[in-house]
Design a protein that fits this description.
With 237 residues, the protein is mainly beta. Helices cover 0% and strands 56% of the residues. It has no helices and 18 strands.
């Protein structure tokens, strides 16, 4: 409906706290990501190729006037832990053409996209690494298309590096079919990728330079794996 819902968390209780009007239904609001300062959030608009900036003041959330123009159909979104950058997966139109990932500079206002890199067909899941220098993105690469399609290919995960306001490709690995969510371990040395069709999670090793090695381990799940996150282990556990 073109809105972002707000919820209040108190202990283990979650209660609705209103909605923010983002755009018309056709804007197809898709993903929200908080900035580390807790005072702002970014919202992708899949339907009209843009990102909105939200301001957060206690329980009050408002949409600012800033709209950032992205690539075609921005979907997944992630912010680096240091709050300096955000990345957005521009999922494209599914027509077999190479699609993109864009880099947002959050160090100066107004925030803006400063670089865009081609990553292949249909990037969906995207996550920044704990070091704030690397980005993992799942690329369907036509794995979601019929095997007789001229655009069919194996699912991939690509590793990008952020340096001097630019994105560069530093590693890649094959994963499953129609792969979506991706997440790093807290130390950044393991990457998890959810495979929708196989109903499992690929486990990959991440080198210091961003190169990826498939460990061969698959973690079975009860359904098609979509969104995926990791969390810090509480002290003493």
């Amino acid at each position: 409906e073109g809105t972002v819902s707000i919820f209040r968390i108190h202990g283990q209780e979650v209660t609705p706290a209103g909605k923010i009007e983002i755009g018309p239904v056709a804007s197809e609001v898709s993903h929200v990501a908080f900035l580390p300062d807790g005072r702002h959030a970014l919202v992708t608009r899949y339907g009209d190729h843009s990102i909105n900036v939200l301001r957060i003041e206690g329980d009050k959330v408002t949409r600012t006037d800033r709209e950032i123009t992205t690539g075609v159909r921005p979907y997944g979104l992630a912010v680096t832990p240091d709050g300096h950058w955000a990345v957005v997966a521009n999922i494209g139109r599914g027509t077999g053409d190479a699609d993109t990932v864009s880099l947002l500079d959050l160090r100066r206002e107004p925030w803006r996209i400063v670089d865009t890199i081609s990553v292949g067909q249909t990037p969906e899941g995207i996550m920044t690494a704990p070091d704030s220098r690397h980005v993992a993105v799942t690329v369907m690469n036509g794995s979601n298309k019929p095997t007789d399609s001229p655009f069919h290919g194996p699912g991939m995960v690509r590793m990008l590096r952020i340096g001097d306001g630019k994105l560069s490709s530093v590693g890649e690995a094959r994963v499953g079919t129609w792969s979506q969510g991706t997440a790093f371990s807290p130390d950044g040395r393991t990457l998890l990728v959810g495979n929708m069709v196989e109903r499992d999670i690929s486990v990959l090793r991440v080198a210091e330079d961003g190169k990826l090695t498939d460990t061969g381990t698959r973690l079975r799940v009860g359904g098609g794996s979509a969104a995926l996150r990791t969390a810090e282990r509480p002290a003493g556990r």
